[in-house]
Structures are given as C-alpha cells and as structure tokens.
Amino acid sequence: GTGKVTATPINGDVEYLSPVNIGGQTLNLDFDSGSSDLWVFNSQLSTASQTGHTVFNVAKSQTLQMMTGATYSISYGDGSGSAGNVGTDTVNIGGATVTSQAIELATAVSASFVEDTASNGLVGLAFSKLNTVKPTQQKTFFDNAMPNLAEPVFTADLRSNAVGAYEFGAIDTSKFNGTMQWAAVNTTNGFWQFSSEKFQVGDATPMAVPGGQAIADTGTTLMLTSAAVVNAYYANVQGAVNDQQVGGVTFPCNSQLPDLQFDVGGSFMANVKGSDINFAPVDNAGTTCFGGVQAIQSNLQIYGDIMFKSQFVAFNGGNNSIGMAPHQ
Ligand SMILES: CC[C@H](C)[C@H](NC(=O)[C@H](C)NC(=O)[C@@H](CCSC)NC[C@@H](N)Cc1ccccc1)C(=O)O
Questions:
Q1: Rounded to the nearest whole angstrom, what is the distance from the C-alpha of residue 239 to the centroid of ligand 1?
Q2: pLDDT digits (tens, 9 = 90+) for 73-102
Q3: What is the DSSP letter of 35?
Q4: How large a percentage of the chain has pLDDT more than 70?
Q5: 126 by DSSP, 3-state: which?
Q6: How many C-beta atoms lie closer than 10 Å to residue 297's C-beta?
Q7: What is the predicted ipTM?
C-alpha cells in the first residue's frame, strides 16, 4: 500500500506538522528523519506540560497495549528531549498502517517542546538502530511499514510557506522536475547520512567541507554546515554580519541571495535557491533577516528544512539510498 499526509509549515517554516492516527486518535506530529523514536504528548504528562497540546489519551484507545518494563529517553542536538514509557498501538499515516507500532508515551518533556504547542510529538524516520527504547529497542514506523509498502520508500515534499506532503510507498514523479538523482547512504551512525565534500556558489571555486559528511534531517529547521562555508557564502551578500546577539548571520532583507550548490555523495550537485536561504526577519520592521544557512562545530553537517524547500527528497530503505530533484 501507500500513505500520504500533508506537511504543514508552522511559525514561518520553523517546522512541518503532519496528522497521524494512533489507536483512533489523530495528533499533529513532527516527522523527523534525524531520529528514530515515535513519541507523543499524552494523558500521563503533568497538566502543566499538557497545556496547549493535543494529547494522546491512553485511557481512550481500545487497541493500546502497554509494554511492561519498557522505557525510553531521547536527547536531541539542540539540548531538548523527552522520556517516558512505551506501548504498542495501531498507527495510520495517510493510509499506510502498522498494527503494532511502538508508541513512546512521554512522562517528561523539555521546555522547548512544552512551549511549541503546535507539535504533539515526533515520528522518527531515521534508522531503527538509533531508537532509545530499553530493554528492547523498537522499530520505526517506516521499518514496520516497509514490507507492506508498494515500494520501500518515503518522500518529503516540503514547501516554503505552503502545504507540502510526506508519502510512504511511492515516489510521485509529478512533484519534481527532471530526473531524480541518487546517492548511497551510510547507515553506520543511524542517520540518512551521505558524503558531501563541497559547496559552490555560481561558478566560483568550490568550498571544501571538513569531514565531508551530511545528514538529511526533516526535523531541523535550517541548513547547518562549517563556519568556513557559511562565511564564504555570505561574503557574497552585502551587509551580511555574524550577529552574536541574534545567534548567527543576518543581512538586509532585500538582499539578492545567491543560490548554493552542495555535493551529494560525490555523484551530483544539488541546488538550494537563494530565496530559500532568506529564512526570516529578526526585527519587526522586517529590515534585517536571518540566514537559513548557519554554522555548527561538527564534522557532520545537518541539511534541514532549508534544503528540503529546494529539493524533493526520496528516502529508499530498500537499498539505503537518498534521491533528490528540484521541486516541480
Ligand atoms: C545531544 C544528542 C545527540 C545529538 C544525539 N542525538 C541525536 O542525534 C538525535 C537522535 N538527533 C538529533 O539530535 C538531530 C540530529 C543531530 S545530528 C548529530 N535530529 C533530530 C532533531 N531534528 C529532533 C528535533 C526536532 C524538533 C525539535 C528539536 C529536535 C545523541 O543522542 O547522542
């Protein structure tokens, strides 16, 4: 079978939320190709933590079965996280259904998740080896669904300030231009990781990337790479400054940002549109804007939603490869 759901941008493309049916209850969740736990806000959480959220009511599901003795605890790169106990239930994502999916029921969530009332949890879509459930590690929705999918794939069609889609089991060729190009994924770290050795602005000299590795992370807002690449890119932008107060590079909102090409698996260069690199204004007047490409100190670059807004991306769990093509 196949399954397709909307991916709705929230708060200026900070994240994308999709409806998921769990045991008859529908929650808007953040599909995250950078982690491997499906966890939800639920009725076990403190009233304070539940405030503003749609929670999964553990008493209401006819099909929820608690997994005795099972717990989870997950931490994310931004310092956020959640922890709790575990059950299994039927999960239906746009028609793709798994009857016994591990549902991780938070009993504690960090402040940033409590404050983000639009999101009621995450659907981890990285590799199951990253799943944090103990004593028995659990499989992701994609791993569980794969045997019954028409094709062992899911796709991310994320749009700038517009509703896009996640689809399981098929690649909708009407959603992208030209031929999709594919690269090998290295699953060692449990991410959708591929080599990405260089960036290029126009026909300027390509910029090398320390470590030369990147992950495709639908749950990260920006595109995070080395400071050297960030500085070289914004050197093309009049008035770009690294503003510590704001926490990254800003520039005049009316800047003409150049496109940025990045290497995928050493086999092709994919493009990020300059317009997508203008992420959001930092001031009420809308004169100063925050860049979508920012620096991290890591040998592993994180290509988040800024990249997905320019590229339609297919994740192939059958042969562990990643496909990209410019959106239609
Ligand atoms: C500090 C935690 C480190 C980064 C590491 N954790 C991870 O790598 C986890 C699985 N993945 C993440 O922290 C990041 C990828 C980091 S690359 C190393 N992806 C998940 C993130 N987008 C989830 C999220 C969504 C919305 C709001 C906030 C966070 C670990 O557990 O060791």
A1: 32
A2: 999 999 999 999 999 999 999 999 999 999
A3: -
A4: 100
A5: coil
A6: 8
A7: 0.96
CA distances 224 to 82, 95, 171, 230, 231, Å, are: 23, 33, 27, 9, 12
**The whole model's pTM is what?**
0.98
Residue nearest to atom 12 of ligand 1 (CA): 76
Contact (Cβ atoms closer than 8 angstroms) between residue 249 and residue 232: no
Cα separation, 145 vs 188, in Å, equals 22
Ramachandran assignment for 183, one of left (phi > 0), alpha (psi -120 to 50 degrees), beta (any other): beta
Residues 251-284 as b/e (b if ≥16 CB within 10 A, e otherwise) read bebebebbebbbbbbeeeebbbbbebbbbeebee
Give every strand in the sheet of 248-252, ordered side by side.
241-243, 248-252, 288-291, 278-281
pLDDT (tens digit per residue) in 22-64: 999 999 999 999 999 999 999 999 999 999 999 999 999 999 9
Place of tokens 């991310």: 156
Residue 13 annotated among the catalytic residues of the structure: no
**203 annotated active-site:** no
